[in-house]
Write a structure and sequence with these properties.
InterPro entries: DUF1508 (IPR010879), UPF0339_domain (IPR051141), YegP-like_sf (IPR036913). Residues 10-57 form the DUF1508 domain. It comes from Streptacidiphilus cavernicola. Pfam families: DUF1508. The chain has 59 residues and is of the alpha+beta class. It has one domain: Double Stranded RNA Binding Domain (2-Layer Sandwich), CATH 3.30.160. The protein contains one helix and three strands; from the N terminus they run E-E-E-H. It has one helix at 36-52, and strands at residues 4-9, 15-20, 26-29. Strands 1-2-3 form a three-stranded antiparallel β-sheet, covered by helices on one side. It is globular, with a radius of gyration of 13 Å. The termini are far apart.
């Protein structure tokens, strides 16, 4: 299985997403969105940002 995003409704009926690695481990989660399309746009934003992201040590 390859890495993938899952979009789902939480207990409060808001939409969220999580990124799962190929082994099924959750490696990232997103905030809540009022609509499914909002959560899907969040997935797209993570894809764009991660492609150019550097790794930095937190202060």
């Amino acid at each position: 299985m390859s890495a993938h995003f899952e979009v789902y409704q939480d207990k409060a009926h808001l939409w969220r997403f999580r990124l799962k690695a190929g082994n099924g481990e959750i490696v990232a989660t997103g905030e809540s969105y009022p609509t499914r399309s909002g959560a899907e746009k969040g997935c797209e934003a993570v894809k764009r940002a991660a492609a150019e992201a550097d790794i930095k040590e937190a202060a």
